[in-house]
């Protein structure tokens, strides 16, 4: 019986990278925008206000800084290992190389759940913003077409449609689709900048008093709540084979996007809590709400338009990452070959993109995501943990492997990252553990029924 923990050879992996059939087209700027696009979404629209009201008050800026420090530990690990192994697959390929095939397969399976569920959840949120925007023009979508069957509706039609639109854009190839994504992210940044500039004229310093109404405990509680607002920067590593000079550009994209997103969160929180008392911010659309309070309804409408455009970038980044994970798994024989067939003109995995898009659309349109949202959080935290562990192992097994970036103080910083991830995983609800266990069991069944027999390592 073949060893389930047989590892993928690093030299062969890098040789495979050199033989890739398409020309990379993404630079540091494109990667940074992809990271911002994946991170800045519902977090800045929703979590900023709710966390300020419920947990930290104006000191929510410290909550975001603490969460950023925790995320930066994982980001540093991503920066090192992605520059050393610049291939499709992200944590899947890192685990496969350092811990063996079955571990790598289950990590790839986990990543697929993270990216598809996240895309579905954001598509569902996009549907609400889109309907609100239509209502501003006196139009509306019937409730039955905005609601999943579990809640008495037929389907969430806008969520399905926007998923198919993004899927079609991705199927055109990386070079073409990145232009669209860059445009969406730039619009999103401009909208946030508009909020900061317009809102700053209405800031009243007295609204920042008391600055820390819930004490240090509230700041820490808030940090745990907003940690998930940073998830998404890891999608950058999944695009490695599409990147020009990955040893340089991948670390810049990963770390750069995290720094910029942290600055955006801090500025938005400062303006928001300065415009109205923090106790009034317990609303899902805090950015629009505070502008309406100061009678800037026109700017609030523009912010709503920006939310519709900006959330599309989040769907784009997560769907893109999912297709690259399944492509890598297919290329290694762990998923059917249809997932690694590329188009002659686009160079994109077209069949893969449409299969992933249809699955995501189905989840967004017909499944209630309330009980599944934490599944993505569990998967993301496990991914961060495994990437941090992979950095430690690879430092031991491949000491001379060229790295475009090195994590300082190894193994201390990766161990701190692992510890923080374990702490947050332990505090997730029991039902999340149940859903995740079921998903892993399904992945294990796929491995033994298909992947083990067709793995390229077996050949």
Automatic annotation (TrEMBL):
Transmembrane spans: 28-53, 59-81, 102-126, 153-171, 183-202, 214-233, 254-278, 298-321, 350-369, 375-395, 407-426, 432-450
Q: Where in the cell is it found?
A: Membrane
Matches recorded under InterPro entries: AA/rel_permease1 (IPR002293)
User: What keywords are annotated for this sequence in UniProt?
Assistant: Membrane, Transmembrane, Transmembrane helix, Transport
- Tell me which GO cellular component terms the UniProt record holds: membrane
Broad class of the protein's primary localization: membrane
UniProt-recorded name of the protein: Amino acid permease
Q: Topology relative to the membrane, per the entry? A: Multi-pass membrane protein
Q: From the Swiss-Prot or TrEMBL record, what is one GO molecular function term?
A: amino acid transmembrane transporter activity
């Amino acid at each position: 019986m073949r060893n389930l923990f047989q590892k993928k050879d690093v030299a062969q992996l890098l040789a495979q990278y050199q033989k890739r059939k398409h020309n990379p087209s993404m630079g540091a700027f494109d990667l940074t925008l992809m990271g911002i696009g994946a991170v800045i979404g519902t977090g800045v629209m929703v979590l900023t206000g709710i966390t300020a009201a419920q947990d930290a008050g104006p000191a929510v800026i410290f909550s975001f800084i603490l969460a950023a420090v925790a995320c930066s530990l994982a980001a540093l690990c991503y920066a090192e290992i992605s520059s050393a192994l610049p291939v499709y697959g992200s944590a899947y390929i890192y685990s496969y190389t350092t811990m063996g095939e079955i571990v790598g397969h289950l990590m790839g399976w986990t990543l697929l759940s993270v990216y598809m569920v996240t895309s579905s959840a954001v598509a569902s949120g996009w549907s609400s913003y889109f309907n609100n925007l239509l209502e501003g023009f006196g139009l509306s979508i019937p409730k039955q077409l905005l609601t999943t069957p579990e809640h008495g509706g037929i389907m969430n039609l806008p969520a399905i449609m926007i998923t198919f639109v993004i899927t079609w854009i991705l199927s055109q190839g990386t070079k073409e689709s990145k232009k669209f994504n860059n445009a969406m992210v730039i619009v999103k940044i401009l909208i946030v900048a508009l909020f900061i500039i317009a809102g700053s004229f209405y800031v009243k310093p007295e609204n920042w008093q008391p600055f820390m109404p819930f004490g240090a405990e509230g700041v820490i509680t808030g940090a745990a709540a907003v940690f998930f607002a940073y998830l998404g920067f890891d999608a950058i590593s999944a695009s490695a084979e599409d990147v020009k000079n990955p040893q340089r550009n991948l670390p810049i994209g990963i770390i750069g996007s995290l720094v910029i997103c942290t600055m955006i969160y801090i500025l938005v929180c400062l303006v928001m809590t300065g415009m109205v008392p923090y106790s009034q911010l317990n609303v899902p659309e805090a950015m629009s709400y505070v502008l309406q309070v100061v009678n800037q309804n026109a700017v609030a409408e523009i912010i709503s338009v920006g939310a519709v455009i900006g959330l599309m970038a989040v769907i784009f980044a997560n769907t893109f990452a999912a297709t690259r994970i399944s492509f890598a798994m297919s290329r290694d024989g762990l998923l059917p070959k249809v997932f690694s067939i590329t188009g002659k003109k686009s160079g994109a995995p077209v069949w893969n993109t449409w299969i992933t898009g249809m699955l995501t659309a189905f989840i967004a349109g017909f499944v209630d995501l309330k009980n599944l949202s934490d599944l993505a959080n569990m998967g993301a935290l496990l991914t961060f943990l495994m990437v941090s562990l992979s950095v430690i192992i690879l430092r031991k097994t491949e000491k001379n492997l060229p790295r475009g970036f090195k994590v300082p103080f190894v193994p201390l910083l990766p161990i701190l990252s692992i510890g923080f991830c374990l702490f947050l995983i332990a505090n997730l609800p029991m039902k999340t553990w149940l859903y995740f266990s079921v998903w892993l069991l399904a992945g294990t069944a796929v491995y033994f029924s298909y992947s083990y027999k067709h793995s390229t390592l077996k050949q």
